[in-house]
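Regression test case RT-17, inverse folding.

Input:
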């Protein structure tokens, strides 16, 4: 199974020039490596980067669950597909927290994305409170089962385990705990489903998540904004 390393740029960088420079540096640095690499920039940079992807898959950070209509500010799966976008992130904890996305909404987004031919990066993970109170497995089971409800063909879906308490905090999840969480999630998906890890990933710890926790890839946040660091992360999965 080919590893998948994804850079989630979030609301960065500010200018198109910066985005293109970062993308070009990553493209050159990962050329010839075995892992599949994808970059998810802000919407406004998708057209420019999709034209010069150079073997790197392009992903979107979000999507709406209707194809078209009076939904001010929203972007549909069909629109993304038309831009040659290959992947889309659905269910990220920041979307759940700041924009009130429920498991039901996430399920709709996954279905519509699959209908449009997009590959999904489906994020799940527990908060610090849920983790400390022993509810992690309950939360993961609910998120996975509700998010994949009534979806038969889950082959284009990649599940990203991102403990909320580890995202952007520098407090990454231990390799041992990550492996247990990945093993638990595997009960609810097909054996061939790629399960990724995300949460304060950097080059110093990335290889262990692949080789010891047996993750099938990584969802990288802040470290993906530094070309050399992201390239080292991709190399660590070789």
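Golden output:
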């Amino acid at each position: 199974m080919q590893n998948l390393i994804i850079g989630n740029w979030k609301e960065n960088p500010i200018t198109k020039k910066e985005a293109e420079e970062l993308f070009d540096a990553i493209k050159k640095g990962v050329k010839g490596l075995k892992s599949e690499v994808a970059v998810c920039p802000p919407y406004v940079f998708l057209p420019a980067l999709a034209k010069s992807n150079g073997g790197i898959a392009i992903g979107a950070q979000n999507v709406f669950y209707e194809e078209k209509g009076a939904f001010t500010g929203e972007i549909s799966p069909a629109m993304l597909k038309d831009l040659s976008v290959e992947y889309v992130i659905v269910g990220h904890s920041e979307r759940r927290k700041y924009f009130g996305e429920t498991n039901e909404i996430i399920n709709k987004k996954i279905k519509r994305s699959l209908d449009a031919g997009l590959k999904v990066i489906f994020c799940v993970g527990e908060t610090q409170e849920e983790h400390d109170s022993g509810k992690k497995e309950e939360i993961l089971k609910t998120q996975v089962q509700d998010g994949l409800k009534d979806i038969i063909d889950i082959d284009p879906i990649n599940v990203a385990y991102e403990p909320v308490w580890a995202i952007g905090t520098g407090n990454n999840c231990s390799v041992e705990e990550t492996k247990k969480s990945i093993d638990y999630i595997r009960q609810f998906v097909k054996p061939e489903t790629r399960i990724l890890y995300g949460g304060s990933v950097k080059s110093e710890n990335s290889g262990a998540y692949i080789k010891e926790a047996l993750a099938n890839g990584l969802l990288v946040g802040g470290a993906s904004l530094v070309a050399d660091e992201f390239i080292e992360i991709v190399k660590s999965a070789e």
